[in-house]
Amino acid sequence: MHTETFPSPDLAWQEEALCAQTGGDFFFPEPGSSVRDAKRICGLCPIRATCLEYALSHDMRFGVWGGMSEKERLELRRSGR
Description:
The protein has a domain of 53 residues. By secondary structure, it is mainly alpha-helical. It is globular and about 30 Å long. The N terminus is likely disordered.
């Protein structure tokens, strides 16, 4: 018996994300590594704003989300967004 699984509605946007098509290595680099490639991909992604909002509202502390690094998101939170 084959059962299909569907993403929850609040995560359905992830299927359209360019990162889902390129792999996570760019978006979760080793500490001290460049996030330039991830940011370049995010810059082309049509759902970058949704991704960033998700990361901020779920306190995602690692990786590049919505074109911003961990440090940039932390600074944004501290500034009151």
